[in-house]
Amino acid sequence: MRNEIRGRLTNRHILLAGVSLLIGAGPAFAQQGANDGAQVDEVVVTATKRELSLQKVPFSINAQTAEAIQRSGAGSLEDLSRNVAGLAVQNLGPGQSQVSVRGVSAGQVVRDQPGVKEQVGVYLDESAISLSLFTPDLDLFDLNRVETLRGPQGTLFGSGSVGGTIRYITNQPRLGEYGGSLEAGLNQIDGGGVGGDLKGAVNIPLGDMAAARLVGYRTNYGGFIDAIGPAAGKDVNDGDRTGARLSVLIEPNDRVRVTPRIVYQRVESNGFNRSEIWNLYANPQTTAVPATTFKRNQQYLKLREKFTDELVLADLKVEATLTDAIDLTSVTTYLTRDILVSRDASALTGSVSVDLGFPAAGVQLASNLRDTTKVDTFSQELRLASTGDGPLQWVAGAFYSTIDRTYNQRLPTPGYDAFTDARFGAGTSAGAANGFPLNSPYNSRLPYTITQYAVFGEATYQLTERLRATAGARYYNFEEERSFKSGGLFSNGDNRKDKTKSDGVSPRIILSYEAAENVTINGGVSEGFRLGGVNDPLNAGLCTPADRALFGGYQSYKDESLWNYELGMKARRGGATFNVAGFYNQIDNLQVTLDAGSCSSRIVFNVDKARSSGVEFELGLNPLEGLSLNLSGSVTDSKFETTLPGALTAATGIRDGNRLPSVPRFQFTASGSYEFPVTDSLTGFVNASVQHVGDRYTQPADQENNPRTFVHNLPFLGAPASAATTVNLKLPSYELANLSAGVESADGLTITAFVNNLTNENAKLSFDRERGGRARLGFAVNTPRTYGVSIRKTF
Predict the structure, then answer these.
(1) CATH architecture, range 2-794
(2) pTM score, two decimals?
(3) DSSP class of 696
(4) What is the dihedral of CA 160, 165, 168, 171, to 10 degrees?
(5) What digits encode the pLDDT tens for the residues 109-144?
(6) In 265-365, which ranges are continuous DSSP H helix?
(7) Of 178, 249, 180, 245, which Cα lies nearest the Cα of 211?
(8) φ, ψ of residue 492 in degrees (nearest 5)
């Protein structure tokens, strides 16, 4: 035990010692920077629920401004993550990316785990839009900035922000101003399809006391995945995103501001970015049909696939000055989402049919797995905040929300009941249906209701001229009720109800010391939390006896909590900024998601101890007029500190010292831009960036027995029973380079030509397996090299 404690302390002390060396260089950096380059524009953020300069926020935060987003060519949160130290996104398909901050990750959460809560909160301005697996794929057009708040933000933002919080901040209506922008683009994917976009924003005064801002956009995505098989096609993963935002500002006097808003967005993809290496129906071992070796970015389909996500958000923000020293803010939000994930599950159903002894015709049936999610959320936040320049600044409030979420799963497989009754006896399929449709061997319905309320407060006091202290806490109370009903041959015929509840306090304490002019050292301790829940029963009839015994004992899982210890520095002088932070996170009852092998089920269970520690930095230089250089990166060490007993260790990957999944140890980005005069009214610019993302694992178990040999044991289409495929499950590191150049006129017209993924890197973003590898093996992959041009006009 002493050696274990000594090891933990040594690791923490080494990290903080490294940060201390960098902090010690802060005053020297600031003095040197004072004499160099152009001034850096001030960035104002609202991460503390009040306006504050980015450099004054007393914890680690990144803000990607609209200009930075445009220069980087980012079109999604995944693109942005490569420019933000400590932020990682695991791509599991359109609209299904999973976000982690500072290495706090529990592994892949898949489509049929609706009860799992998110680890990173996502907000559109002040409205929460997080939904575990389904992080909204918001368009980045007409944003003011994207804030990434690192470390637990439970005090001000509640559950789901155990690792951090991401906030999309939109441009607000402006009184008395006409203005806007138009943007159009066209692009070609190397070896793939054509895409393009058309976007616009306009700000319109409505008299002296009101204004409206309307934003609309349409983006068509070219595909790059080709399908073989009965549903063969080229570029089958193309899609589109359509959306609009309308916000109105009403300001009857200088003490009241009312901002109603409505947001609509629909994302549709005709397939998934899955590149297969083995499929039940197409593999190198078959002899009854021609053997198949997949090419790059290729998959096998009997049925075409689809993903749709329709989001409607209506919110109302009211700001009022109650006294000269106190402001009131009310935020009311209603959010509804309809999500469909429609997949070709023929290989999944077919692999079960082989185990059940069905004839070849039964194994070959086309099968469609349809997951639908319907969510309705109402929330209300009311808070008071101090104003003025006194030594005490504070914010206090109350929060309430109710979430109604219904998740349904259907597996329509025309003709399946006839094979079922022929194999097991007449009436078997009807007897297993449990009220669900026939010819669907698996069905489930899971309605959830989650209610929570909370009170919170945080205060900052200027102790001395150079030293400030911040303290805050949040009391939360949650209750979750859910029902689970299943039916069909693959199910257990369940019909049950479950209820969980939780309450607690989430505190934060921060000290901030001004070591020199524009050099601040921050140290803090904070706690974050994530609610527990209940697992769905295993599909016991599909499990091998070994998997049923191994995974069958996990019914519920407890709340996850995290204590964050942080030390950092923020320095700014002239044309230079340098921010660095070291952190140590102790995680208790980490909720880990695992694939329960042959059961075609997933379970969540708690791991007693885990940790995540590391260093993150961001350096920005403007050494010459028009030249901007940026370097950011993170080194993260995230590991389990618990070993499960017996066979569970190898099956789950939960071993002391094993890495937490989906998080790269190293992530760095170097970028630069240069602006130069072409004529008196025309400015040229060149932007370039190189991003490195280190190796990762999709699930914890992937680092056990790796490279992994998947023995398919499916004697079908002539394949021998010993047929196997060996795969290295460590996702290799990759580098992406982007380059753009263009001209901007004095009247606001900008023309940009770009090449994204300049070297045509084929990055493996996550590992895809179906039924423990018995049905399908593949990887989610990135978009190949893409050429394009965009035209933007502001007025």
Answers:
(1) Beta Barrel (2.40)
(2) 0.90
(3) B
(4) 120
(5) 555 566 677 788 889 999 988 877 677 888 999 999
(6) 346-356, 360-363
(7) 249
(8) -95, -5
